[in-house]
């Protein structure tokens, strides 16, 4: 492609509202343009990168045995009402009415549509398993669109759905697609982790997220420094290996702690470590109240609490609600003497000897508190967030934290949607059974942004070769110089004929502008045709490393071929 014939509207300044590096550079280098908050046009360069990611996704999905189809973005409300999500999905679902006042939704996801399709077309176990996928625009009315393509209201997504007659079959396909996802993100050149995750509103269990490591990520990943273990921070279990002090138990004593309410204030006032304090909180778990105890230097993990009680919702009680339930304020709350409420504690609490807790009386705490002797706990469980430096749950190494951008998610949905929507098949015995389902998503446009976050420097992008918009950027330093213009044109045709994707800068701009734009766009190899063109010599620059070579035109093809294979 000749640069004079395409649209690459580079900017000299970074737009003021672009907060993160990928957003800044995608705008500045002319890859995208914003149409509305969270809604973008893909300019020619951006569209080429998007298509290359889509191609990688298609190749890996096809290799895993999935079949592509395309479903409507405009979905009937009745399907969402069947699954129950029309009433529970929330304001992110964009709802519209047609001229007859019938309700529709713009597709945020396609579980309902695919389930209705398969239930109408597949009736026998002989047609299962079946895995279908699409690459399509999705719509979600994000409360706060931000970071460009990382969180938009309109985005490109690959969503796949598998249907099975047994959990064993689901496990097999899940593993195939798990492997496919690893291949996709590896081929995109990303530094990522597959992490154990919570299925949230999607339902189901046994789910993994694929997280690209990045400081701008909105999720925290806990991963081992010595193995492949990784989990979302709320899902990482803690090894309950707490040593209990051998010190003699002391008599419990009530002490005044005037205006000392937080763990930090109480521990400093009493000159004790926070790990000897017992943090006591009231949670509302569905329709019951639960008193939760953790060590003072730990935080309650509400996802673990929710999973323990198999609850639909878990919420920390407000100070007013806490006082109503247990009769004292949050700053003085403790487990001693409380009645008519279930008490659960993290495993670390069991190891506390001569600890500190609230006395359920304003401005007072107990010291020399010992679990079981001074109060009863109904159940010990892993209820806290894992911390950096904790032993890895797999027993290998220690936990390190990193921020991550979610680019993919795989779920085992089970029969959540098939039962609600009556998607049944006849088994070997002619008995009707609900189909067992899996769901697998990749944020295609978000993957583009994630690569942009990891592949850039102070001058612009440093795209990996397999998803760069073009492989080569030919710069004719002076298009008015006939020798340079003719050599540039000849190299352009020859390299294109040899299946390289080439962008030729044939504009009449100053050399400085051309070089700055070239660094900004970030194609893997730049070929500069300049003063030595009359001798058939050009300059090669590897964008990522900055390495430069002078190469004769007769050796150019061989040299470029060997370089590209290493990028």
From TrEMBL:
Enzyme class: ligase
UniProt key word GTP-binding: no
E.C. number(s) listed in UniProt: 6.1.1.15
Keywords carried by this UniProt record: Aminoacyl-tRNA synthetase, ATP-binding, Cytoplasm, Ligase, Nucleotide-binding, Protein biosynthesis
Location, primary (coarse class): cytoplasm
UniProt-annotated location(s): Cytoplasm
Catalytic activity reported: tRNA(Pro) + L-proline + ATP = L-prolyl-tRNA(Pro) + AMP + diphosphate
Cited CDD domains: ProRS-INS (cd04334), ProRS_anticodon_short (cd00861), ProRS_core_prok (cd00779)
A Pfam family recorded for this sequence: tRNA-synt_2b
Sequence ranges assigned to domain Aminoacyl-transfer RNA synthetases class-II family profile in this UniProt record: 38-464
Molecular function terms from GO: proline-tRNA ligase activity
Main function: Catalyzes the attachment of proline to tRNA(Pro) in a two-step reaction: proline is first activated by ATP to form Pro-AMP and then transferred to the acceptor end of tRNA(Pro). As ProRS can inadvertently accommodate and process non-cognate amino acids such as alanine and cysteine, to avoid such errors it has two additional distinct editing activities against alanine. One activity is designated as 'pretransfer' editing and involves the tRNA(Pro)-independent hydrolysis of activated Ala-AMP.
Domain statement: Consists of three domains: the N-terminal catalytic domain, the editing domain and the C-terminal anticodon-binding domain.
Subunit structure: Homodimer.
Membership in a protein family: Belongs to the class-II aminoacyl-tRNA synthetase family. ProS type 1 subfamily.
The name this protein goes by in its record: Proline--tRNA ligase
Record organism: Neobacillus ginsengisoli
């Amino acid at each position: 492609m000749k640069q004079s014939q395409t649209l690459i509207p580079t900017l000299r300044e970074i737009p003021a509202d672009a907060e993160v590096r990928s957003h800044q550079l995608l705008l500045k280098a002319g890859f995208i343009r914003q149409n509305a908050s969270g809604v973008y046009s893909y300019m020619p360069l951006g569209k080429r990168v998007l298509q290359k990611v889509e191609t990688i996704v298609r190749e890996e999905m096809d290799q895993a045995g999935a079949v592509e189809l395309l479903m409507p973005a405009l979905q009937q409300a009745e399907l969402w009402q069947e699954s129950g999500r029309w009433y529970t999905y929330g304001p992110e679902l964009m709802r519209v009415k047609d001229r007859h006042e019938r309700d529709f939704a713009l597709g945020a996801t396609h579980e309902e549509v695919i389930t209705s399709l398969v239930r109408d077309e597949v009736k026998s176990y002989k047609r299962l398993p079946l895995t279908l996928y699409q690459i399509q625009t999705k719509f979600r009315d994000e409360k706060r669109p931000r970071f460009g393509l990382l969180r938009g209201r309109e985005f490109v997504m690959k969503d796949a759905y598998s249907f099975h007659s047994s959990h064993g079959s689901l496990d097999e396909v899940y593993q195939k697609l798990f492997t496919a996802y690893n291949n996709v993100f590896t081929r995109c050149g990303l530094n990522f982790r597959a992490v154990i995750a919570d299925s949230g509103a999607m339902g189901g269990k046994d789910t993994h997220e694929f997280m690209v490591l990045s400081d701008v990520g909105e999720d925290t990943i806990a991963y081992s420094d010595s193995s492949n273990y990784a989990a979302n921070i709320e899902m990482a279990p803690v090894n309950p290996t707490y040593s209990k002090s051998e010190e003699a138990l002391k008599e419990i004593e009530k002490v005044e702690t005037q205006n000392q309410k937080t763990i930090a204030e109480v521990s400093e006032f009493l000159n004790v470590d926070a790990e000897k304090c017992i943090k006591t909180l009231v949670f509302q778990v569905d329709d019951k109240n639960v008193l939760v105890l953790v060590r003072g230097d730990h935080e309650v993990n509400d996802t673990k609490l929710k999973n323990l009680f198999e609850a639909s919702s878990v919420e920390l009680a407000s100070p007013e609600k806490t006082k109503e339930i247990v009769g004292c304020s949050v700053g003085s709350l403790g487990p001693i003497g409380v009645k008519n409420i279930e008490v659960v504690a993290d495993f670390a609490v069991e190891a506390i000897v001569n600890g500190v807790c609230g006395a359920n009386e304003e401005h007072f705490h107990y010291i020399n508190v010992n679990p079981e002797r001074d109060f009863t706990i109904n159940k010990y469980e892993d209820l806290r967030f894992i911390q950096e430096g904790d032993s890895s749950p797999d027993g290998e190494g220690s936990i390190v934290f990193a921020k991550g951008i979610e680019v993919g998610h795989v779920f085992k949905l089970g029969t959540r949607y098939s039962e609600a929507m009556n998607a049944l098949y006849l088994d070997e015995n002619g008995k009707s059974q609900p189909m067992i389902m899996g769901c697998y998503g990749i944020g295609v446009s978000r993957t583009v942004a994630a690569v942009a976050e990891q592949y850039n420097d102070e001058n612009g992008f440093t795209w990996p070769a397999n998803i760069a918009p073009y492989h080569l950027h030919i710069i004719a330093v002076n298009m008015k110089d006939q020798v340079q213009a003719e050599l540039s044109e000849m190299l352009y045709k020859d390299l294109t004929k040899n299946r390289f994707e080439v962008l030729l800068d044939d504009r009449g701009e100053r050399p400085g502008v051309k070089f700055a734009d070239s660094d900004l766009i970030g194609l893997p190899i730049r070929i500069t045709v300049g003063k030595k063109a009359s001798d058939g010599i050009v300059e090669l620059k590897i964008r990522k490393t900055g390495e430069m070579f002078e190469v004769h035109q007769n050796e150019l093809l061989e040299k470029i071929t060997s370089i590209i294979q290493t990028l």
